[in-house]
Amino acid sequence: MSNSNLLFIPFKNSYNIDLKETVRRYLQDHTSAHPDSFKVDINRWQELRRDGVGGTVHKDGTDKMNNYHAQLLSILTKLPSDIGLDISYASVFSPNTIPVTLRSLAFERAAVLFNLAALYSQLANNEDRSHLEGIKRAISCYQSAAGTLFYLRSSALAELSDSPQEDDIPFDLDKSCIHSLEWLMLAQAQECFWQKAKIDGFKNALMAKLAANTSALYKLSISAIRDASPPVKSLFPLDWRAHIEAKQHHFEAVAQYRKSTEELENSSYGVEISRLKEAQNEAKSAQDIARRGKVSQAVVQDIDSLVNAVKTALARAERDNDLIYHQDIPAVSALSPIPHAAIAQVTIPAGLSSPPKGTHMIFGELLGWGAQEAINIYNDRKKNLLQDQIVEPARELKDKADEMLTSHNLPASIEALERPVGLPPSLLKKGEEVRLENGPMKIESWFEDLQRQARHDFNILEEAMDILDTEASEDEVARKELPLNRPPSYEANIELIEKEKRYRTILDQAKASDDTVRRKWDEWENNITDLTLNESELEAMVPSSTVSSRKTPESAVTSRYARHLRVLLESLDTLHADRDQYVRRAEALAEADDIYPRILKAASGIERLTKVQPATFEDVLDEELAKYDKFCEYIKESEQKQEDILSSIEADNEKFIKSRKDDPSVKEREHALQSLDLSYHKYREITNNLQEGIKFYNDLSGLLLQFKDSCKIWCNHRQQEIHALSQSLGSMSLQESDDAGDFSGEYIRDQPEALVDAPAPSLPNPPSQPPQSAQPKKVFGKISSGLPPLNSSEWGFEEIKLPPGPSKKKSKMKV
């Protein structure tokens, strides 16, 4: 610790990062802007960060850090906090430990504010307070440090706490830690005011009030530490806690001492003695705490000087009262409280949230993150609306109609009657479609793709389990060497194992669905292959029918019903064509639909540096989506029209069947045409199954990779716990040998049950890159607090709907 009688906040060591590539990639992938158009801004950001994260004590540094923070505020209105940029900072009191790495610009902002407060405190500490000008500058810096910490606590920490990585926030950015430091800086500013008043020769009454308020501020600081969680409490070095507590008692003693002098001036000799006794008790408490806590020699000397002054004054007061005044000495509890004079103020630096006029704001021309996210939300809603309310309902209506016609042997039954020889045009068209697509070879190729993707997904899941198995083995070995106070792997990873079982069940059931599709293909392969034959070969497969040319009343009735059915079928085809046209128009509208100009216009009216949320543009999104209402309404109307036509077809087809002659040749031809028509529908069904199955496995592979990454993160954290415990056990052995007998039971009780880091007196310059052990992309900051719950959304797990197995009529495999 410095030999100053005041404390300064160390810097949080930062590490160099190359943000250019990450920022360019984010702009490329998530915005409509080209990264090259912001090349100057990206380079400027890199330059500002070099001088804006702190680490050097110079008065010009405050302007650079204020400017960088203002730019970060502007950047955070344009970009989300997580752009994939790994940012590392070391712990404030343990600069050589593994740094905390978060993908969070909010973390960068909070750390910059912390280091700015540290810089103000160090500038104040460097001032020569032996003269008034130095004291004034120190007061200004301490008040700015307190103001910066207040701004950090009330503004930046709220955004950091809202991030998905909340549980990884380092303890030195915990609110209780920041609050304690804020009170400390304000207390030291107040102490400087007291020192200035002493030099200026102010009266004892005011000096007592200033000292009383100084003591109260130190008390607030130490109370914030005591009330904090054990990990935050243990973050503060022992000599810091001793210093703050000693200062509290010291200035309470000063207040009573100065007030006793005022009592002497007012001839209240008994009250004077009572206050001097209280001052003596407080001064001795400060002296004991300072000596046990190894605080700086300057503080010890201040306290010793006060102890001596109080002792001398008390001896004189008691002698005079015994010999001359004979006044009663009231109990301490009967003394009136000393009023407080709160002079020190929390001062938020002026340039913290707004840079100087004329400053070029980084990404000033870029559409804000909230506005960009509103565009993304609109595009997602548009896509979902198009798919769920237009395209998919239209397809389902077409499938429903086709299924109904197939079940009634239409149009094959009337085509067999209308065209006794040759092939119907509709069947020729279907055969040509399968032939041009090289249907059988395409199906076999897609089966290979499906099986390959399925094997890939199974392999990912096996790799994830290998990771957990390796960690479990390491855990068993570590338990033989270290006193691990945590659940064994088979208990701690139970939720990961449950998720693995769920994914494996999904894959097993998907495999069963694949087998069903394969069996369907084996059953219909020959029939579908027949569709690839040329027209003459197909025609040879279909027998002709001979129909009597003699007109009879019965045949006339049959022909009439056949004509009715043909008209209804043509109406149904027209309805399908009209619906398809509406779908294409909706898709074309969606393809050309660009909401960017409207969002840009709405965003231009929002105040500069205001963080805009996507919800701001909700009305605009609703108005734009209303363009698709007419298409949705038409799909609903066409559904009722189709129901009416299908009902009429069903009724007329029943009459047609009853009136038709029982001609075996017609029946045979009808059966052949129906078989070919059904083969075409099976072909379409199988290809749809395979397409959806391949998409299913592709989508699932992304989720399985997330699961695998979550297993890696979890295992890395478990390894970090073992590493930290191993290091802490070694440092505890050294600390116990060096410090045995130096601290009272009171200080021992203040420590957490685990281990306490020794204070770091020196603050070496940080390396240009994090230590090798910090290279993984993410290191958890709260070693002792454990991971977030495994059922937390932070792990990135998503619910997957298992695709239904294929049925005889239709099979789908989709997520």
From TrEMBL:
Stretches assigned to the BRO1 domain: 5-405
This protein's name: BRO1-like domain-containing protein
Pfam families: ALIX_LYPXL_bnd, BRO1
Chain intervals for the UniProt region annotation (Disordered): 756-815
Family the entry assigns: Belongs to the palA/RIM20 family.
Residue spans of biased composition, Pro residues class: 761-770
SMART domains named in the record: BRO1
A Gene Ontology term for the protein's cellular component: endosome
PROSITE patterns: BRO1
Protein source organism: Armillaria novae-zelandiae
